[in-house]
Every structure is written in structure tokens, then in C-alpha cells.
TrEMBL record:
Organism: Stephania japonica
Protein name: S-locus receptor kinase
SUPFAM superfamilies: Protein kinase-like (PK-like)
Source species, domain of life: Eukaryota
Keywords, alphabetical: ATP-binding, Kinase, Nucleotide-binding, Serine/threonine-protein kinase, Transferase
Domain S-locus receptor kinase C-terminal: residue ranges: 105-150
Upper taxonomic lineage: Eukaryota, Viridiplantae, Streptophyta, Embryophyta, Tracheophyta
Amino acid sequence: MSPEYAMDGLFSIKSDVFSFGVIMLEIISGKKNKGFYHSNHNSNLLGNAWRLWRDGNPLELVDESIASSCVPSEVLRCIHVALLCVQHYPNDRLSMPLVSLMLISEATGLPTPKAPGFVRRNFHLTESSSSFHQESVTTNEMTISLLEPR
């Protein structure tokens, strides 16, 4: 579910692009976004994919059961495209025709992804001092109201 739909109830073609990116990351990792939590890094599937990409280790995202049968350059391209699909702001996401083109053509250049939507932002107290430092993640909160008749 895209951030703009979850937060404001806004739906567009770019919401589908976000969902497609999540599905790509789920297929690559072999893990579902719902319920995924990486305790060492306090992140969900999107946050984990982003952290691995940012740290230069995106292939660590690949499910072990398919890793040996994958072509690394193709998997990297899929991860790259998926991250471009799950950008926080709809205008930063690709269009589906562009997603298709990027997946089938290695000649198509890929822009650099930004942090995806629904990535946590945390503050930690450092052990050596009483100062805080911020990690590059965001918190998105949501309120759900259930309406009942009188």
C-alpha cells in the first residue's frame, strides 16, 4: 500500500507502481513485506532493501534458495527498478511503461533511487555521550476509525 493511500486515502497509477515495487522486493527476498522486521537494523523489508542498497550490498537481499541460479546483473537491475518504484513521493516513482522498458532493456539508464516510503526514522542515544544521532529512515503513522451504526 502506497504511503499516500495509507496516510491520505489518495490513489493513483503511481500507487500501483509502489505496490509493484514491493512485490518485486518480496519475490527477490523471498519474504513478505507484511510482518517483515529486521531487528538488527530496526527496519521493514523496504528499509532493509534500502539499507543494503545504500551500503553497497544489495545482493544480500536475494533469497538463498534462488541466489545460485540468478544472474547478478539482472538481479541488481530488478532491485534498482524496485527501489525506484517504492519512492516515497509519487512524482519520484517510475511509470509502468518505463518500468517495463527498464526491466527488458539493459541499454536504458537508471536514475539513482532515494529512500523509499515507509522507512523508519529512529533516534539512538550513543553510549559514549548523552547526545542523539539520527538514522536516515522515516516514521509513518496511521489512524484507523471504525464506524458503527447507532
